[in-house]
Amino acid sequence: MDSIIQKLVKRKILRTLAIYLGSSWVIIEASDRFIEKYQWPAFVGDIILTFLVFGLLPTMIYMFKVYRVGDETLAPVKSNNSEELDGDLNSIAVLPFVNMSNDPDQQYFADGMQDALIGELSQISALRVISRTSTLRY
User: Fold this and answer.
1) Bridge partners (DSSP) listed for residue 91
2) What is the pTM of this model?
3) Which of 84, 97, 110, 129 has the most beta carbons within 10 angstroms of its beta carbon?
């Protein structure tokens, strides 16, 4: 009988956790540089970190629902529209960030965050990253 860790590895939940943590690290590093460069208040970094920490739990719950950890099968759960999810999800799209400041001249920051994430994620050879221009309509 497989242990729970082996089941998590088979269902790529640990890989998802690693990708989430790696992406979070990239976001934190990029935001720290922007905060320092543009002398933003320190609480901006705290807010970003809080969102990333609280986003981990819903991400893991979603992965447990997609890949039933207790089942003996490795097939993912079917979605509501009966389309079967691919067991080897290897593509990711970084959606455009919204400029939530009152200054429209700060849009370059949101665009820069998206570009930085796309650049870092594209260095992972097992991951196909959707181009920025393809995600602009979303």
Assistant:
1) 128
2) 0.45
3) 129
- 3-state class (DSSP) for residue 60: helix
User: Could you give the angle at the alpha carbon of 92 between the alpha carbons of 86 and 98, nearest 5°?
Assistant: 135
Q: Do the Cβ atoms of 68 and 77 come closer than 8 Å?
A: yes
**Residues 106, 101: Cα–Cα separation, whole Å:** 7
From its phi and psi, is residue 82 left (phi > 0), alpha (psi between -120 and 50) or beta? left
pLDDT value of residue 137:
73
Contact criterion met (CB below 8 Å) for 114 and 94: yes
d(CA 116, CA 17): 20
Q: SS3 of 129, please?
A: strand
Distances (CA, A) of 114 to 10, 25, 64, 68, 80: 30, 14, 27, 32, 30
Asked if the model's pLDDT at residue 26 lies above 70, the reply is yes
Which DSSP helix (H) or strand (E) runs through 115? Answer: helix 107-121
Residue 85's pLDDT band (boundaries 50, 70, 90)? very low
